[in-house]
Design goal:
By secondary structure, this protein is α+β, with helices and mostly antiparallel strands. The chain is built from two helices and five strands, in the order H-E-E-E-H-E-E. The protein binds guanosine-5'-monophosphate and zinc ion.
């Protein structure tokens, strides 16, 4: 846990968020500033700074499966969705607690900006 991390605060329940799914070690909640009709963040309860620092391969697998489960729960199975994680300045990472963005509900551009 990191005292100044917003996602640690959400994971431990000291800051409120619109939580859509929780498991033993993962929390999924709606992004505060959504960029698509569905924009959910899937985060490990444990503070991991980014995918670059992720060592637990089983947790990584669970994060991915949970993101797919969230997409299904949000009704995106047929229309499609995108799962994104940002690391570092070029990718625009702004919160240094690993999170998967689940985006859907509109057509996505490729390549991303
Ligand atoms: P990044 O740019 O690091 O990949 O994504 C961080 C995301 O977290 C952004 O989309 C931003 O809107 C979202 N975010 C930042 N702070 C909060 C917060 O306190 N609550 C929620 N729900 N989302 C947040
Ligand atoms: Zn954290």
């Amino acid at each position: 846990m990191n005292e100044r991390c917003p996602f640690c605060a959400i994971a431990r329940g000291s800051v409120t968020a619109d939580v859509v799914l929780t498991t033993d070690d993962i929390v999924a909640f709606r992004d505060l500033n959504p960029v698509a009709p569905v924009h959910v963040l899937v985060v490990p309860v444990e503070h991991v700074t980014s995918v670059s620092a992720l060592e637990d391969t089983e947790l990584g697998g669970r994060l991915l499966r949970t993101a797919a489960r969230v997409a299904r729960q949000e009704g995106l199975e047929g229309s499609g969705y995108r799962i994104v994680t940002n690391h570092g300045p070029d990718a625009g990472q702004s919160v240094h607690h690993l999170h998967l963005h689940v985006l859907g509900g509109r057509p996505m551009h490729w390549p991303p900006g």
